Amino acid sequence: MALRLSHLNISSCLLPPIKEASRQYTKKLKAQSHREWARKNLVRKHEDISHQMRDWFWKLVIAV
Q1: For the residues 29-58, what does the mean pLDDT come to?
Q2: In the chain, which end has fewer C-beta atoms inside a 10 angstrom radius, N or C?
Q3: What is the pTM of this model?
Q4: Residue 54 placed within a domain
Q5: Which DSSP string corresponds to 16-63?
Q6: Tens of pLDDT along 48-60?
Q7: Domain range holding 50?
């Protein structure tokens, strides 16, 4: 089974969580107590997507 690059649709499945977390972070005031939590949440979303993409590329290489 060959995987195609079109299966990695970044705009529709991977970006909405980052967009939402980024919006939550930017709406927090600098002195607000939950700002750090929102920043860490945004970082966590970036890492999750990075790991998903890395996993997908490894699966692509193994399948080829």
Answers
A1: 91
A2: N
A3: 0.71
A4: yes
A5: HHHHHHHHHHHHS-TT-TTHHHHHHHHHHHHHHHHHHHHHHHHHHHHH
A6: 999 988 998 889 8
A7: 34-64
